[in-house]
Amino acid sequence: MTLTIQHIRHATSLITIQGKTILLDPMLSDTGELPPIPFTRHVRRNPTVPLSVPLETFKHIDAILVTHLHVDHFDKTAKKILNKKMPVLCQPEDQQRILSWGFENVFPIEQFKHWEGIDFTRIRGQHAKGNISKLLGPVSGFILNTPDDGSLYIVGDCVLTDQIKQVFEQHKPRICIVNAPNAQLLFGSVITMIPEDIGTILKTSPSTKVVAVHMDAIRHCTSSRKDLLQYIEQQQLLDSVVIPEDGEYIYF
Question: Which SMART domains match (predicted)?
Fold first, then answer.
């Protein structure tokens, strides 16, 4: 069985695993339909690029997986158009808000959940360092594992912490999706991974294939695909890192 990732835009992907299609972190608004990100120096609206697929695409999914509820990971269009009976898997802190949006089947993952032949393990994350982390609220990553497909680690909007390094040391995931746009708030607070973190991850787990996303769609993300490509070329990591374009399929 083939594991497939279709990168839609920003942090949004369609993951097909164990024959099920899971929508990850749905930001489905058209260009300019979302406000500027608070506490950044950018005053123009988001996203900066259109959705790469028609909205009808999201009628053909089996579940939704949400790392956290910032507007660029679960937006107003997603709340409006997604089937309210669709299973939603999330961190426990987000269950009540998602229920309040009318979704009926919301499954919080405290540590572990088995769903439709897929094992989900939640990894606690940290959206920034210091007090900024409290401002931004909780965020999680998830490891999806099946006997046929191996492990896929969705890291989420996390800075690279010692705990996440330990996850790579212990699990050595076959594939990981990393948000590495060097997103910044005012005063230079970095709130995601940066290109150099991918190098650290691959030193820790050289067999992992990295899918790098979260670039070229929201204004406070300061590293572009071009920037990341330049870094991985310099570090000779081209065989280990994929930087998908919006709408692109990746087959494993």
Answer: Lactamase_B
Taking a C-beta distance cutoff of 8 angstroms, is the pair 200, 210 a contact?
Answer: no
For the stretch 30-69, pLDDT in tens is 999 999 998 888 889 999 999 999 999 999 999 999 999 9
**DSSP state at residue 154:** E
Can you say whether the dihedral through the CA atoms of 225, 227, 228, 230 is positive or negative?
positive
Helix, strand, coil in percent for the chain, rounding step 5: 25, 30, 50
H or E element, residue 119 = strand 118-124
Q: What's the CA gap between 60 and 138, in Å, rounded?
A: 29
Tokens linked to 122: 């939640």
Which of 242, 217, 243 is CA-nearest to residue 28? Answer: 217
Structural domains present in the chain: 4-251 (3.60.15.10)
Q: Which residues pair with 5 in a beta bridge?
A: 15, 250
β-strand pairing of 112-115 with 118-124: antiparallel
d(CA 62, CA 196): 35
Residues linked to residue 124 through DSSP beta bridges, in sequence order:
140
pTM (two decimals): 0.97
pLDDT at 202 over 80: yes
Instruction: Look at residue 104 in the predicted model and tell me its pLDDT.
Output: 98
